[in-house]
Design a protein that fits this description.
Elements (H helix, E strand, L loop, with lengths): L2 H7 L13 E3 L20 H5 L7 E3 L11 E2 L21 E4 L4 E4 L3 H10 L10 H9 L26
Parallel strand pairs: 1-2, 2-3
Antiparallel strand pairs: 4-5
Length: 164
């Protein structure tokens, strides 16, 4: 689901989800949603809340607020917009998560993943010039701090300002 799709469909009574479903929200990483704002919050679908579900696994290449809760895996890298495996996930795919082993596995046969990767193209960049284009073209993956590649190692000063 992309952010807009999530908002439009999360509370549909006919949403095909169960308490065992895993939500995947992609396209919100540094390149896919430039500057990676905290837009990755994924609520529990209303139909599951009515059934008593209070948590489910949610996975995204985006960020979410520190006030959110539950079983969430964020900052997945490389992000979907940069060709990461998350971008190949399709509805119905099985995913295995092991927090104790630090593993996140897409349980799809290699041949199928190769086919999906061959057919995959990134979404068109929303910016074609200016600082936003520069950012998209040079930003590193979330695991590398989402810094601009040409700035890495250039500044060693500590930021002592309040961040909130």
């Amino acid at each position: 689901m992309v952010d807009e799709d999530l908002k439009a469909n999360i509370d549909r009574d006919d949403l095909p989800v169960t308490a065992d479903s895993i939500f995947v929200l992609k396209g919100l990483g540094p390149k896919g949603y430039p500057r990676m704002p905290e837009v990755g919050n994924m609520p529990i679908p209303a139909k599951l809340v009515r059934e008593g579900v209070r948590d489910m696994i949610r996975i995204s290449d985006g960020r979410m607020s520190g006030t959110a809760y539950g079983t969430v895996i964020f900052h997945v890298s490389p992000e979907s917009q940069a060709g990461g495996t998350l971008g190949l996930v399709q509805t119905g795919d099985r995913i295995r998560v092991s927090a104790s082993h630090g593993q996140l596995d897409l349980l799809v046969k290699d041949a199928e993943l190769e086919q999906r990767r061959a057919n995959w193209t990134p979404d068109p960049a929303p910016y074609t010039r200016g600082d936003a284009k520069l950012y998209i073209d040079t930003v590193l993956h979330a695991e590398q701090g989402a810094d601009l590649d040409f700035l890495v190692g250039k500044d060693t000063r500590l930021d002592t300002r309040e961040s909130h």
